[in-house]
Design brief:
179 residues; 7 strands; two-stranded antiparallel sheet; five-stranded mixed sheet
C-alpha cells in the first residue's frame, strides 16, 4: 500500500540503527503527528482555538519544512529522469554525520551521488530570502566536518539574495520548482 517506507541515509545504508520509517501519505502523516496525540484537547476546545494554540506554529516550524524537503527531493528526481541534471545522479537521500568536536549528530537534507561525487542540498522553508551569510555558514560547516561535497545547492521557499553567485551554487526557489 506504500503507506510507510524505510528511509536509509545515503552514506550508511547498511546501518540498521540509522534507518527510520516514514509515513508517505500526507494526510496520515499530519493526523498522527498532530491530531492523534491530542484527542482530548481537540474535543475540549473549538477547532479555531485548537488550531491557534496547538497547530499554527507546529505546522510552520516542523511540518511544512519537512514536506518542503520531500518536495525538493522529488523535484531533483524528476529533473534527473528528464535528463536535465548533468552528470545524472544514481543515488539520492539524506546524509548523516557525527560532529565529534561539538558532540552532536546531524544530517544534510538532500544529497545526491553521481560519477563525480556528492552534492549537498539544504532546504530552507522560511519567510526571508536566503542570503550569502547563510550560504557561507553552510560551506564552512561542510569544511569543518571534513565532508567532501564537490558542489552545494540550496532550495529556498522565498528565493535568494542577489549577492549569491549562481554559477558556484545550485540555487532553486519554490517559484523555480513550479515554473
Amino acid at each position: 500500500m506504500d503507506l510507510i517506507i524505510k528511509d536509509s541515509p545515503i552514506n550508511a545504508p547498511a546501518n540498521r540503527r540509522k534507518h527510520r520509517y516514514v509515513i508517505c501519505d500526507n494526510l496520515l502523516d499530519f493526523y498522527y503527528a498532530y491530531l492523534f496525540r491530542d484527542v482530548t484537547g481537540r474535543t475540549a476546545v473549538s477547532p479555531e482555538t485548537f488550531y491557534a494554540q496547538q497547530l499554527r506554529s507546529a505546522i510552520a516550524t516542523d511540518y511544512l519544512p519537512r514536506k518542503f524537503e520531500q518536495v525538493a527531493k522529488e523535484y531533483l528526481l524528476r529533473q534527473n529522469r528528464a535528463g536535465k541534471i548533468q552528470p545524472p545522479f544514481m543515488r539520492i537521500g539524506r546524509y548523516i554525520y557525527n560532529d565529534k568536536a561539538r558532540h552532536q549528530n546531524g544530517e544534510f537534507d538532500v544529497v545526491t551521488e553521481d560519477s563525480r561525487g556528492l552534492i549537498a542540498y539544504e532546504c530552507k522553508y522560511r519567510q526571508a530570502p536566503v542570503g550569502l551569510k547563510y550560504v557561507r555558514e553552510e560551506e564552512w560547516q561542510h569544511k569543518q566536518l571534513g565532508i567532501n561535497f564537490y558542489r552545494l545547492g540550496f532550495f529556498a521557499r522565498n528565493g535568494f539574495a542577489p549577492d549569491i553567485d549562481r554559477q558556484r551554487y545550485s540555487l532553486i526557489s519554490l517559484a523555480d520548482m513550479y515554473a
